[in-house]
Predict the structure.
Amino acid sequence: MSRLKNDTFLRALLRQPTDYTPVWLMRQAGRYLPEYCETRKRAGSFLQLCKSPALACEVTLQPLARYDLDAAILFSDILTVPDAMGLGLYFAEGEGPRFERPLRDEWEIRNLTAPDPHVELQYVMDAVAEIRRALDGSVPLIGFSGSPWTLACYMVEGGSSDDYRRIKTLAYSRPDLLHHILDVTAQAVVKYLNAQIEAGAQAVMVFDSWGGVLSEAAYREFSLRYLQQVIAGLRREYDGHRVPSIVFTKGGGIWLESIAAIGSDAVGLDWTMDIGRARELVGDKVALQGNLDPSILFAPPEVVAGEARKVLDAYGPHAGHVFNLGHGISQYTPPDNVRVLVDTVHEHSRASRAAQENR
């Protein structure tokens, strides 16, 4: 980690002491930034933006030029993996992501294979390498993937869903087929993340955005089991450095202790759980990432600052906290409020550490 000018984020993930609490934001490169909207317009479409390493690098760096963030995250989409499996990803205006060929028939499911990240997904690896070069050791780069369960939801539903009817019907009527999808997808995610690590990602995160829609028994069978499989398959060290991993299940606070036991270095929390209570439950098993409600960023600046301090105080001056939102930043967020948030996290956590040391 000596090559990095700022390795605070990586040290926090490994529960090592830091001078302050590092902060980055899920979806920090996005539509709330006017410069992002300009680049996206130039790209022609969201998918073309993702598939151009130069433009993906450009938008990855945009929030770092504005704010004193402690990490960059690869600009991409979780659905690149199923797209590479041949499902035909496209983005319909006002509808979000859709697949031309969702998994409907048994033969399609049986024929599913994990893509080679250096063939179908080489554009992502090129983006990782380009971003890493452009960062020039300033802050670490996070690579990421969707979780097997969340990707399977999109692959079976064909897009976003309100009721998850198709995937849950499959889970309860043909669990053998769903397990096949999940197993192949888990293999794909492991290959994909390891390729990102080899291309330059210094930490990796798995987004289980839809895990919270399951019952406890179904979560353990169809989501947690495969999260554990992914974490077990990841490279934990590359080029002489530890590569920490983060898992995030939206709505997963009720299963926090089980998630903390699967072997990742950190667990991301959504905003529904008190982070101090979460720390009591997991102790020093994992670092915790989170967990301000993204909607707080619509409030006046002094409220944003006050709520950020509440999260920091709830966690306390302990090692192992990475400040983040409890979900992705909204496109309607005032950019100036993000600066207030980042600066408050740094200033308040520094002051708290100093006060602790002077006791």
